[in-house]
């Protein structure tokens, strides 16, 4: 059973909506505006970095690009998640972040499962991966709960990966 439904360009899970960024929202992030539909501690630093990147390279604003994470119960933007598109040799990487006020509720894992499943259904993708700093054990658990397995590591970083059951069908 799918961990998300696709409604237009939104990915919807039990508790979240993963919604593509609009240009107006990206501009609000870089200008430090405070729309009412953002959690009080959104955006985090990572969201600012992504917003700046997407304003400079708007080709990242695709169906397979970066998305806001919206808490369905409140309607507030509580983080972001996205694919670093296009894939390279059938592999696409993703990154994510949830604001501190909403951590510990399983939101990052729920969003991660949805974006991984969505990515693996995309044309030409058979592998999804993410890198995590080993000093962030909560993020390690997020990736494990999202179905990824550790495939390599160095002194500071681990790489996690999941591969579609039959990549020849992609």
Automatic annotation (TrEMBL):
What are this entry's molecular-function GO terms?
A: acyltransferase activity, transferring groups other than amino-acyl groups
Residues of the signal sequence? none
Q: Which domain of life is it from?
A: Bacteria
InterPro entries referenced in this protein's UniProt entry, alphabetically: Acyl_CoA_acyltransferase, GNAT_dom, N-acetyltransferase
**What SUPFAM superfamilies has UniProt attached to this entry?**
Acyl-CoA N-acyltransferases (Nat) (SSF55729)
**Domain N-acetyltransferase, chain residue ranges per copy:** 16-165
PANTHER family membership: ACETYLTRANSFERASE, GNAT FAMILY, PUTATIVE (AFU_ORTHOLOGUE AFUA_3G00765)-RELATED-RELATED
What name does the UniProt record give this protein?
GNAT family N-acetyltransferase
Source organism of this protein record: Streptomyces caniferus
